[in-house]
Fold:
Amino acid sequence: MSPKTGAAALFNDEAVEHLRSADDTLRELIDSIGPLDMEARMRGRPTDPYGALLRSIVGQQLSTKAARTIYERLIAIFGDRPPTPQELLDADPEEVRAAGLSRPKVSYLRSLAEHVLSGDLELERLDELSDEDVAREITGVKGLGQWTADMFLIFHLGRPDVLPVGDLGVRRAVERAYGLEIIPRPEDLEALGERWRPYRSLASLYLWRSLANEPV
Structure:
């Protein structure tokens, strides 16, 4: 059996036990939810870095269901597979937009394709970089911010200590689980998450799961 890669590698006994012992509230959440089937969670997702970023752009500010529907419409244009960067640039932007994408998102997809083709974004070497350097490379593309970088680090590269403080789902889950009166600010979530190091990615996965609303 091949070793687990990407997000599937994040769920392991050591990480779970660390989170359970570090935080009573998170322990209750973990015990209530039980083991996470990350391999099932990742099934059907793009396994290449370009496809992963393309799907992340589609999913920005959308519900999981809406993002999945639009993504399926998008790849249907290209024979039910993610388009190559050149195919995307050659396609009529209005045809791409007809899949349900906004004009800004179409421009973000095209910017990603341009950066890949020009070599400004070397996707195949991202796994060799630190989390901070990966984020710096990704956010150099128009429309790709820290949220997209965090999703790529967690779901594609399987980095264990990423806390997406800008993700509304994680912040809403913390509000509910910890009985807060308001959704925590990113800096407050950052402070709370210090106790989860070095497994903040798994903590985030459990928080998303508690809402049954994981990002695409």
Q: What stands out?
A: Residues 6-42+161-211 form a domain with the Endonuclease Iii, domain 2 fold (CATH 1.10.1670.40). The mean pLDDT is 90.
